[in-house]
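Hi everyone,

Forwarding the result from last night's run.
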Amino acid sequence: MALAEIVRFQDVYEADLAAAFLADRGIDVDVTERFQTTVDPLMQRALGLRLMAPSDQVEVARDLLARAARGEFAADDEDDLPPPDLTTRNLGRGMALALASSGAFWGNSLPRRLRTVHWAGMTLILGIVALSLITALSL
């Protein structure tokens, strides 16, 4: 049977979630362009990921995805995640701002830019340029 496009996604994770949702409801679905978009993530925006299904199941799949987008399949139970601790989050933001102003960043996951040695190097270069301009203008 010929495959037809159900929908096109720009993100591999959204495509996988939609494919799992449709497969759970009995739709025989295939995510195309998976290899190209996972090898080079920039290709996700260029190619997109298509969900393909047999042509006789396409309308049912589109209807299921539209109903899911409206929240028809959402559960009424509460989320089991605890509420965020705003005190810790605000403390972390304050420390990050304080350290960012000193030329470093807080934490290992953020790049360290413009350390003290960088500032010293830039000051030295600017001083040399200023001194050379002053001597050039005085001649």
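Residues 116-138 form the longest helix (23 residues).

Cheers,
N.
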